[in-house]
Design goal:
Radius of gyration: 37 Å
Structural class: alpha/beta
CATH class of the largest domain: Alpha Beta
Largest sheet: 8 strands, mixed, barrel
Bound molecules: ligand C2E, calcium ion
Distance between the termini: 127 Å
Mean pLDDT: 90
Shape: elongated
CATH superfamily of the largest domain: EAL domain
Number of helices: 22
Number of strands: 22
Low-confidence stretches: none
CATH topology of the largest domain: TIM Barrel
């Protein structure tokens, strides 16, 4: 009996010491006597939750009523595990209701401090710590890991997770799903020209528009870049998929207003169906991507369902990229030349260099079939260098026959974005003894609007070396002639789409005339592309257009044929 007393006393002393220590910290202390279920809670404990002392009932049962219903089962499990001896330290995290009705994340820790002679726990002492801040940052990290920062939509990780769940659900209920990949057409152009802030705004608004097109149970996510995805669930009627796809396209095509700026974009959608096309998540994702690619190649602003033949097309693209890697080394890159005619005299004074790829199995491959792949893979740089070198050597030769002969060479924006300098082009001309003014670089309008300073610098260095600059496909982008004044542009090439429909009194004729008048005022000469008929040629001549190029005069030809036809004496 005395022994028991002495033990209790020493326990009380050490208890008082550590209670004191804990009270000094920002932890709340609790002391629970199991046989009576009575709990002592310290002043700090009450302070954490905003209760006055005595306001919370005296038993552990009273305290439990304050725990968030979603957390209660786990909390009870944790305490039972400790009482059963499964844990040496009791530890549990839950939300506890404050006086003002809000919830506070709490970490409760404690341990058995006294047991009956037969080992039954009699008393537990422990603490409560406010861990709201930690929980908040944990939630924030979880959000960052699963949601896209710009649009606040689920990101790729969360999307794939949900997709997997939806596949399982659809399997159980024998339902169909539709997966859509949505890609904005020419987003890169907008991002480059109007700046990244506008680009981000556009993505944000696109996300909102997409969400407005689907039901709450469907998932809209952003996979990255300008790629979004929509997962349609509970599909009963397949016409529903067509309707949604069309609605999405319509909504994307509505103008975006950013300050004074009106921006127009379109989207392309690839669609694949579960279980019709596949039941496998990865395959479905790949299908949707391939279908989207098909939608893009068939003219953008449309949607396309997956078909097995797309698999073959994707494989073929991969093979082209592989073969293209070796094309320069194997001397498969050739250049054909299309004459450019001075309209007033009918004389050929210029030519455009157009790349061709002589593939061992496919034969002559046209730029439309490999330039986009070369741009995507970065191979455009070596190919572009090769084209320029061949064209420059040809120019050196042809200037012997025609001293003022000029060669025009295409240069895509991807070639300008490359970090490499282009002084070696100028050096090559120097080595060949070809003056700078015998070469014209054709660029697209979009490039001029590109905000990057290196692009303006590179254009300038070409100009300083005497090279001329032409704007290709003029009229299809969104720059105005007035804008060209800022840059030292020498030629504009009227896009083929205007030339094609030239008729007396047609709108397109009015456009061509206007381009010519304004260009001349700015000291810029005009080249019309895609001239196929004599009517077109005559109308352009009357409109004052300086040069023309097109099948009426000649298709692009290999150097030897070009020479034979246009420089018979040389
Ligand atoms: P582009 O610069 O607009 O070149 C004119 C295209 O129109 C050429 O197609 C030419 O064959 C075609 N064409 C010429 N006259 C007529 C005509 O009267 N009617 C019609 N319907 N078409 C005509 P091509 O050679 O297939 O080249 C396609 C595009 O590939 C070019 O369009 C250019 O953007 C790009 N490209 C060609 N060579 C190169 C190159 O060396 N580097 C780069 N970056 N792009 C190139
Ligand atoms: Ca061109
Ligand atoms: Ca063109």
């Amino acid at each position: 009996m005395r022994g028991q007393d002495a033990h209790d006393l020493s326990l009380e002393v050490s208890e008082a010491r550590w209670k004191l220590a804990l009270e000094g910290s920002n932890m709340g202390v609790w002391d629970w006597h199991l046989d009576t279920d009575l709990v002592f809670r310290s002043g700090q404990w009450h302070e954490i939750y905003g209760y006055a002392e005595g306001e919370v009932g005296p038993t552990a049962q009273d305290g439990r009523k304050l725990i968030h219903p979603d957390d209660l089962t786990q909390a009870i499990q944790d305490i039972q595990d400790h009482l059963a001896g499964k844990t040496t330290l009791f530890e549990s995290e839950f939300r506890l209701r404050c006086k003002d009705g809000t919830w506070k994340w709490t970490q409760s820790r404690g341990m058995i401090v006294s047991t009956s002679p037969n080992g039954r726990p009699l008393r537990l002492i422990g603490t409560h710590t406010d861990i709201s801040e930690r929980k908040h940052s944990e939630a924030e990290m979880l959000r960052l890991a699963h949601y896209d920062v710009i649009t606040a939509l689920p990101n790729r990780v969360l999307f794939l997770d949900r997709f997997e769940q939806e596949i399982r659900k659809a399997q159980r209920h024998r339902q169909a799903l539709a997966l859509m990949f949505i890609d904005l057409d020419r987003f890169k152009e907008i991002n480059d020209t109007l700046g990244h802030d506008t680009g981000d705004q556009l993505l944000r608004e696109t996300g909102q528009r997409l969400q407005g097109c689907v039901r709450a149970t469907d998932t809209v996510a952003r996979l990255g870049g300008d790629e979004f995805t929509v997962l349609l669930t509970h599909l009963e009627d397949m016409n529903h998929v067509d309707r949604i796809a069309q609605t999405i396209l319509d909504h994307i095509a509505r103008p975006y207003q950013f300050g004074d700026e009106m921006v127009y974009v379109t989207g392309s959608i690839g669609i694949t169906l579960y279980p019709h096309d596949s039941t496998d998540l990865e395959t479905l994702v790949r299908n949707a991507d391939q279908a989207m690619y098909a939608a893009k190649s068939s003219g953008r602003n449309g949607y396309h369902y997956f078909t097995p033949s797309m698999q073959a097309a994707a494989f073929s693209r991969l093979k082209i990229a592989n073969d293209l890697r070796k094309a320069v080394q194997l001397e498969q890159i050739q250049v054909h030349y299309q004459p450019i005619v001075e309209l007033a005299t009918g004389r050929v004074t210029k030519a455009e260099a157009l790349v061709r790829w002589l593939h061992p199995e496919r034969g002559l491959v046209f730029p439309g079939d490999f330039i986009p792949i070369a741009e995507d893979t970065g191979l455009i740089t070596v190919i572009g260098d090769e084209v320029f070198a061949q064209a420059a050597r040809q120019t050196a030769l042809w200037r012997n026959a025609l001293p003022n002969f000029q060669m025009t060479v295409n240069k895509s924006p991807a070639q300008f974005r490359n970090s490499r300098e282009h002084t070696h082009w100028i050096q090559l001309l120097h080595d060949l003894g070809v003056p700078g003014e015998s070469m014209v670089i054709e660029i697209t309008e979009g490039l001029l609007l590109d905000a990057h300073p290196p692009i303006a610098q590179r254009l300038e260095s070409f100009h300083d070396a005497g090279l001329r600059i032409a704007i290709d496909d003029f009229g299809t982008g969104y720059s105005s002639l007035a804008y060209l004044k800022k840059f030292e542009i020498d030629y504009v090439k009227i896009d083929r789409s205007f030339t094609a429909n030239l008729q007396p009194d047609s709108d397109d004729l009015a456009i061509c005339e206007a381009i010519v008048v304004m260009a001349h005022k700015l000291g810029i000469q005009v080249i019309a592309e895609g001239v196929e008929t004599e009517t077109q040629r005559d109308l352009l001549l009357k409109a004052g257009c300086d040069y023309a190029q097109g099948f009426l005069f000649s298709r692009p030809l290999p150097a030897a044929q070009f020479e034979a036809r246009f420089f018979p004496a040389g």
